[in-house]
Structure formats: C-alpha cells, structure tokens
Amino acid sequence: xxxxxxxxxxxxxxxxxxxxxxAWKVAERCHEEGAKITLTNAPVAMRFxxxxxLGEKVNAEIIPADATSLEDLENLFTKSxxxxxxxxxxxxxxxxxxxxxxxxxxxxxxxYDWMQKTFDISAISFHKVMQTLHKLDAISDWGSVLALTxxxxxxxxxxxxxxxxxxxxxxxxxxxxxxxxxxxxHVRVNTISQSPTMTTAGSGIKGFQEFFNxxxxxxxxxxxxxxxxADYCITMFSDLTRYVTMQNLYHDGGFSNMGMSPAxxxxxxxxx
Length: 272
Description:
Strand content: 5-15%
Number of helices: 9
Oligomer: single chain
CATH architecture: 3-Layer(aba) Sandwich
Radius of gyration: 19 Å
CATH topology: Rossmann fold
Shape: globular
Helix content: 40-55%
Order of helices and strands: EHEHHEHEHHEHEHHE
Largest sheet: 7 strands, parallel
Distance between the termini: 54 Å
CATH superfamily: NAD(P)-binding Rossmann-like Domain
Number of strands: 7
CATH class: Alpha Beta
C-alpha cells in the first residue's frame, strides 16, 4: 500500500538486474511512493538483465555506468539531475561481485588481482559514488545514501570468500563518509544487512540453498524477503528517518542476535 512517502523526491538506483533483484523491488516501491528515479547498472550486466523492462514499468530513464569509473559516475549523476529536474535525494548502492567466487577459487587459494577487483566493484565503488555526489554537489541537504550489505562482515561464512572483507569495507565507508556528508550536508549514510535472499547473484554462491534454509530456521521471524527489504529502504529514503546515519541496520528476522535455535536441533524423545 502506497503512502506517498517519497512524493517529490528524486533518486538513483544501482544494481537492478531482474525481477529477483532487491534493487528491482526497491525501484518499484520508489515509484509507488511517488519518487522520480533513474536506473543504472554496468553495461555488461545490462546485456544479461531486464532493466529496460523495469525502466518502462517505473517510467525511469536508464543510464549505463561502471560504478568503478569516476567518469561514468560523473556522467550518471550529471545526467540524473538534468533528467529528474534537480538534486538527488536518495541513492541505493546494490552492487556486489567476486571473480574468485564466480571462478570457484577457494579462500585459501585466492587470486589477488581478482580480490582487488572484488573490492573495487563491491566496496570502493560506494566511496566513489559518495565522493562524486559530494564533488558535483549533486545530493540534496537531508538526502539519504544507502548500501546493501551482509552479516559476513562480522561473522565467518567460509563460502562467502573475500566478499566478507568487501562488506566490512563497505560498512566502514558508510561510517567514515557518513560523518563528512552529515557535517557538511546533513546527508545520512547507512547500510542494510539483509537476510540471505533468493536473488540471481546470491543463489549462485556455493551451498546457498542450504544456508538459506539454515538462516530461515535460525531467525525467529524467518528470512526477510526482498519485498520487505524494499519497504525498509523506502523508510530510509523518507523523511521519517532523517536522524539515522552511520548505522549498519540488520534486516534479518532476528538472525544477527541468535546464538542457537531449537528449530535446528534434531527431534529427540525423552528417555523413559
């Protein structure tokens, strides 16, 4: 149900690939809540996704951009302010990719140039997004910048590989740049640590289905679906959260506070 929470606001959404993407759900909800948005993804990702379909659905122009390229980001935000008719009020960074994971390289046999590429795409791009917004003076006062992360930044999930360090770096950038944007522009910067979610990217991780089931049982409320994450993003973009910044916000059904759950124990009968 729409409440016009984003009426009159302008935003840029990174990372919508297909209907399973959290960014796709966020774009749909932004449109429902009255925002005007532009969509962006890396040119190579756009060839494999369905972003054109989403653009038509939410009446959004699509601007290809490699988030690791400062030139592309400058073009993206300059064009977005022109298309949307003013400064940007909110940004979603929903970007993550590991060549080591894709190529099946184990964490103790990692290829370091691939690791550096992972960091650039999955984390340093977030710093580049904020720095470009700041230098161009392209974001409104009291704007909101948000990135999606995962609890592997704090805990060990062996098959997540160096994406864990990427997420830790991403969250650190939110705190560090959150200070500067907060002091200078009253802009808030946060990360949302989402449950395992059946996205195209997530489901490609080794053992993902088994872990999805494990997390679902461990979480008192179960895994948070992509649609619920989109709702949470909307609140973070809205004026209802103007004083929330530099936070890593868990959206995981309670998983992050659990030690164990009886739901994961085998059924046993009491001895007579």
